[in-house]
Amino acid sequence: MSSKCIRLAETLNRDCQCVSVDRDRLRRALAQGEAGADMIRLIEEERPHLFAATTVFLGQASVERMAEVVAAVERVVALPAWAERVLAWAPETARHETAASSVFMGYDFHLGEAGPQLIEINTNAGGGLLNAALSQAQFACCEEVAAMLPGVHPAPTLEQDYVDMFREEWRAERDGAELRRIAIVDEKPQEQYLYPEFLLFRKLFERHGIAAVVCDPAELAFADGELKHGGERIDLVYNRLTDFGLEAPASAALRQAWLAGAVVLTPHPRAHALYADKRNLTLLTDEAVLAELGADAATRATLLGGIPRTRRVRREEAEDLWARRKQLFFKPAAGFGGRAAYRGDKLTKRVFEEILEGDYVVQALVPPSARRIGTDAEQVELKIDLRNYTYRGRVQLVTARLYQGQTTNFRTPGGGFAPVLTVPSIEGKE
């Protein structure tokens, strides 16, 4: 992708230090409707690297290219043959059909030499509401930078867009009924790193007239045809669990209620099976399979050019994989959050043997691009992961995560979630 806006974005990420985050404005946005001091303590004292100290620049051409890849994936997932293929390796719960689409899909990209490359898809991508607050807390020292909008969606409408998204999920399953109560569910929620976001969602729903509770799945009960928490009926569950198939004992009540049609669940096991299982990437990067599934030529070209080649790890190919390991990245098929994922150049023989024994995919390595921060005397380069939050194929927000190490970790000083400023294309001057 040869584009002037992309080159300018690269220059700004390397040299520009003038854009930052208005911390006071961010505190006000986060404390809105919540016990302010407690929320600030949860973030600034216990999660000091949740938000980065800077902004990431991204060329408009890259924004558009990512949206094209998202649309291409959506077209393939919509093919009848796709579901038949991927449900073969999915848990039984994924075969349960539902009209809900799943909120907060996350398409994660690295910027490679050939443009944005989709490295994985997530069905319960966290950070959407935190980034809505962050996108409204920027300041810039020049008009040129101030004119660049965060992501691809006007920040003041994001929260309403999110609420509308949950209502749309509800209407898809319960047209005409009133959405009264939502449960935000995760295992031991108070111990989760993104627990502050759960509280923000609870208050967001309440501001829009929807009762909400944050709870562990074990606190739910399925009785008399209803899913309940503390004796109150739950209409919709905002699912933040990484038990993607609802197979854990603690998820039993939620699983029973969902399979019985007693609760609207979003995201749900079927969405994870259709989109986020890492094995799906092996199909999306195989032209013969895509053609067999019925994908048109343009869709195939977009996917093959926008997703690093991905294959299942097989023991019979061990010698070749080890020889080429420095150009590869290994991921567990059912993994999330970078857990048990390895860059090939960091592998030991012992870990490689564990990979061969496990269920892994191997992906062509696309090193992340970088954002330079600090003073002339002391500068640090942070890696950039780009995330597109989407709903029904529409990109709602583009954000970044800055980090050091193999994967995003929210432990890097100066790193964390970062707003994205789009460098517009200049007509006739590319």
End-to-end distance:
11 Å
Average per-residue pLDDT, rounded, comes to: 90
Q: Give the number of DSSP strands.
A: 20
User: Per the principal axes of the C-alpha atoms, what is the gross shape?
Assistant: globular
Kindly estimate the percentage of residues that lie in beta strands according to DSSP: 15-25%
- What's the tally of helices? 16
State the share of residues found in helices, binned by percent: 25-40%
Structural class: alpha+beta
> What is the total domain count?
2
Runs in which pLDDT lies below 50 for 5 or more consecutive residues are: none
User: Main sheet?
Assistant: 7 strands, mixed
Radius of gyration: 22 Å
Structure explained in plain terms:
By secondary structure, the protein is α+β, with helices and mostly antiparallel strands. The protein folds into two domains: 4-287 and 368-423, no CATH class; 309-364, Dna Ligase, domain 1 (2-Layer Sandwich), CATH 3.30.1490. The chain is built from 16 helices and 20 strands. The chain has helices at residues 4-15, 23-31, 36-45, 60-77, 80-86, 128-134, 143-146, 158-174, 195-207, 252-259, 269-276, 280-284, 287-293, 297-306, 318-323, 349-357; strands at 20-21, 56-59, 105-112, 115-122, 138-139, 181-185, 211-215, 220-223, 226-229, 232-233, 236-239, 264-266, 310-312, 328-332, 342-343, 360-364, 370-374, 379-391, 394-403, 416-423. Strands 2, 3, 4, 17, 18, 19 and 20 form a seven-stranded mixed beta sheet that branches. A four-stranded parallel beta sheet has the order 7-6-11-12, with helices on one face. Helix 4 packs across helix 14 (297-306). The model has no long low-confidence stretch (mean pLDDT 90).
